[in-house]
Amino acid sequence: MDHNRSNKYWIAIMKVGSEDITELTDGRLDESSSFSPNGQIIIFVSELNRRGSIFTVTKDGDVYRVRNQLFDACEPAWEPKNSGYVKIVPYKTNN
Q1: Are residues 76 and 44 in contact, defined by beta-carbon separation less than 8 angstroms?
Q2: Helix (H, G, I), strand (E, B) or coil at 67
Q3: What is the pLDDT of residues 28-62, one digit of tens each?
Q4: Which pLDDT score, from 0 to 100, does residue 91 have?
Q5: Got the DSSP string for 7-28?
Q6: Closest alpha carbon to 52 in 34, 69, 77, 33
């Protein structure tokens, strides 16, 4: 889930039937999260150097940046189970 507090967005998880929220990231604008098919990794977009950049986070809170990104990105999503691919939508700007 994208968790909003004080106009900042973090990636957080919550167990079904519980009200306990575990925040996994602490960025200013972490959003558009999507679980991997095996449920172990979450992909999301965050702002880095004024551009949309793609990151992954484990359920333990280990964050990794996707490398070699040549464009602003938004709304990453995992493709069907076992495909090994992630869908990335380039964000078009007028620059």
Answers
A1: yes
A2: coil
A3: 888 888 888 888 899 998 888 878 888 999 988 89
A4: 52
A5: TEEEEEEE-TT---EEE----S
A6: 69
> Which residue type is seen at 41?
I
Beta strands, E only, 1-95 = 2-5, 8-14, 21-23, 31-35, 41-48, 51-58, 63-65, 73-78, 86-90
Cα Rg of the chain (Å, integer) = 13
> Residue 37 corresponds to which amino acid?
P
The structure tokens listed for 33 are: 């999260």
Query: How many residues make up the chain in this entry?
Result: 95
Q: Assess whether pLDDT exceeds 70 at residue 20.
A: yes
Rounded Cα gap, residues 71 and 47, in angstroms: 12
Quote the distance between the C-alpha of residue 12 and its chain's center: 10
- DSSP state for residue 25 in the 8-state scheme: -
